Amino acid sequence: MDKQELALMVIDRLKKEYPDAGCTLDYDDAWKLLVSVRLAAQCTDARVNVVVEGLYAKYPDVNALAEVTPEEIEEIVRPCGLGKSKARDISACMRMLRDEYDGKVPDDFNKLLKLPGVGRKSANLIMGDVFGKPAIVTDTHCIRLCNRIGLVDGIKEPKKVEMELWKIIPPEEGSDFCHRLVYHGRDVCTARTKPHCEKCCLADICCKQI
User: Fewest Cβ atoms closer than 10 Å to its Cβ: which of 78, 105, 174, 206?
Assistant: First the structure.
């Protein structure tokens, strides 16, 4: 079985296992997802979802966030860790959205990458979840599971993993596939404990197991 065949089998099984899998960050606007994904670095999505409630209650739109100092943002987002750098990026990002994009998040990958604090992972998340465009989000779950399953071979650098996955994952499947890997990585193919291979829907095709 080549990697493309394996990828299609993995996609099919994960679809059946996690039919409703989606982004675990709460948002109702593109700019809010930008904020949340920046806060999620080295922090749980669950904590981010709680913290941003206070942030949006005080600063309900792009303009409001753009007008306050990074220090004022930091006061609220500090529980997410790395408060100073995250607040600085969020402040600069909101100002750029206000000044260059009329407060709207651009639907262009390269323009997203120019926003402060936005890397390939964040840009892909926005492209896939907000704009419904082909996207592959190589977060830690994706990288770990794709190596373990055998979709990539010993590659840990996010961009390289992304480029390899583009070769074997149908474009329209990429975004949901990555969300399902997050669910599978949390529930079954865990990182901090021994993986629960005995209840894994991929056990018979996973390279770690065969």
Answer: 78
Task: Please check the confidence at residue 150 and state whether its pLDDT lies above 80.
Answer: yes
- Banded pLDDT at 139 (limits 50, 70, 90): very high
The CA distance from 12 to 136, in Å, is 17
DSSP-assigned letters across all residues of 168-187:
HS-GGGHHHHHHHHHHHHHH
Q: Under a CB-based contact definition with an 8 Å cutoff, are residues 92 and 84 in contact?
A: no
By annotation, the residues acting in catalysis are: 121, 139
Q: At what angle do helices 83-100 and 30-39 cross, to 10 degrees?
A: 160
Contact of 155 with 149, CB cutoff 8 Å = no
pLDDT at 79 over 70: yes
Under a CB-based contact definition with an 8 Å cutoff, are residues 6 and 205 in contact?
yes
Spatial distance between the Cα atoms of 39 and 37, rounded to a whole number of angstroms: 5
Would you say residue 209 has pLDDT above 70? Answer: no
